Amino acid sequence: MAIPRLSDAQRDALLAELPAWTLREDGRAIVRTFRFADFSAAWAFMNRVALYAEKADHHPEWFNVYNRVDVTLTTHDADGLSARDAAMARAMEGFV
Prior knowledge:
This protein is an alpha+beta fold.
């Protein structure tokens, strides 16, 4: 089943709603760096996101070093951003 890609207008509205996220240079993903007090807080955030991701069947690309979590959201089946990425970004914002 194909997953529809967000239109440019939908993508722009998402970025306006979530100003901490930025559009990747190729326009096919959004990125954000989360910073926490320490490694334990970063890990707790990643655990919450992992549980959400499993339920949503949509998993972020991420990288963790100590208190920093770098996240990239894209939907490979849509060849760009989809409603799944929008929902994941909103959920992540709720976990901080």
